[in-house]
Amino acid sequence: MGSAHIDQRSLLGLAESIASSAKTIVDILKGQKLPQPSFLPCSPMKYPENPEFAKLQDARMNLITSAWAIEQFAAGPQDYVYWQAYTIKHDLTVLNAFAKFGIFDAVPPDGDISYADLARKVPLTERQLRRLFRHAMTKNIFFEPRPDHVAHTALSMAPVKNPTLKPWIHHNLGEVLPASSRLADAVEKYGDTQDPTQTALSMAWNLGKGKSLFDWLENDGEGPERGWRARLFAQAMQAMDGGGHDRRYTIQGFNWEGLGGATVVDVGGSSGFISMSLAEKFPALRFVVQDLPEVEDAFNALIPTDLRSRVTFQRYDFMTPQPQYSADVFLLRHVLHDWTDAIAIKILRNLINGPGGTMKDGARIIVSDNVMPPMGVIPPPLERLTTTADLQMWTVTNALERRKDDWIDLFKQADERLETVAFVQPEGSSDTVIEVVFHDK
Ligand SMILES: C[S@@+](CC[C@H](N)C(=O)[O-])C[C@H]1O[C@@H](n2cnc3c(N)ncnc32)[C@H](O)[C@@H]1O
């Protein structure tokens, strides 16, 4: 078991470390004839991933860790804590307002636009716009190339170039942020509960008795609007398809080719984007994407014609017995971490015990999810992604991120016949692919 250590470096030591990591990054990019980082809107959105990835990644992680520490030294403890409490929430509010009111897309990607003209394109007044922009610009999100005009920077261009960041912002800042600000109140009221209906989210959004996150996403809204949150959530999940949660890690982490002509059931598969990528790569495989009814539209919008015969959608509630119980493989990607142990066990048992029989001997459950590493063994910027995922689950469903032993215990508790045979975490991946085999003996 590792432990997190306090950073012992001095102010000058941090500055030297920053200079050294920055030089490594500059040299690698120069060597590969790639642009240097800048705030120009045409800047690349991501770092390259190639043979020098590990060296580049180490330098980036050290640079970020050192920059965080040096910011804390430069601010001093009193100002740092005071500023954090005061400013951060508004950074997030502004980002949410930009996404909600279509401002990222209303500012032209090239050139600039006056606040007055922008106010004619979006549902905000010039005065409101100026106030939001002025705060955002302190962190290099948009800038004023000339008085009274606003233009994009590389950061404000990110949701324009990758539109899935907009539903991602909506879910995290429009839905989860009001809930995370109630986490302490929910703990005070409900204690250390694992009930998915007694959460900070249910408190913040007055969900009513017995309603959980997914009931709310699925049912909020009237008439044709109903389920609008679930549809946006399905798009937000596609934003996770990049960085450490890129779909390619789920593809690399298991020998899909070796399955031959099997049927894979993608349980809680959302828009089906993983199944579609797997189907493209492995033409012998067939897929059934299962999710709640409101997600079907997102699937229909995404499925290419040539995959329709091999990738289908089935409305299915995984709190009920699995209709495809005789399939060869069940994929659960980013699903079990949404649920406390008692419910995750119920979901697993529903896979095994179908309405007409049990899972086939030798069938596999493939889980692609976070496995919490021991404390302090991965760089702090990556550690923060795992602790964020854990707190996010606590906030929205009272669930958690599990360590390796927790996963093994979970499968055993669900059914003694489940054997966990592999944990594979491809390089660069935040997800681990866990392979579990069912022995019907
Ligand atoms: C965190 S998302 C993961 C989606 C997808 N597997 C991925 O990798 O991005 C969890 C999914 O579980 C689905 N879900 C939640 N409750 C469900 C239920 N009772 N039955 C079936 N699907 C459900 C949600 O609609 C959502 O698509």
From TrEMBL:
Sorted keywords for this record are: Methyltransferase, S-adenosyl-L-methionine, Transferase
Q: Where is the O-methyltransferase dimerisation domain?
A: 93-156
This chain's protein is named Uncharacterized protein
Q: Name one GO molecular function term.
A: O-methyltransferase activity
InterPro entries to which the protein is assigned, alphabetical: COMT-like (IPR016461), COMT_C (IPR001077), COMT_dimerisation (IPR012967), SAM-dependent_MTases_sf (IPR029063), WH-like_DNA-bd_sf (IPR036388), WH_DNA-bd_sf (IPR036390)
Pfam families recorded for this chain? Dimerisation (PF08100), Methyltransf_2 (PF00891)
Q: Which organism is the protein's source?
A: Cladophialophora psammophila CBS 110553
Is Methyltransferase among this UniProt entry's keywords?
yes
In this chain the O-methyltransferase C-terminal domain maps to 250-414
Q: Which GO terms describe its biological process?
A: methylation
Its family remark reads: Belongs to the class I-like SAM-binding methyltransferase superfamily. Cation-independent O-methyltransferase family.
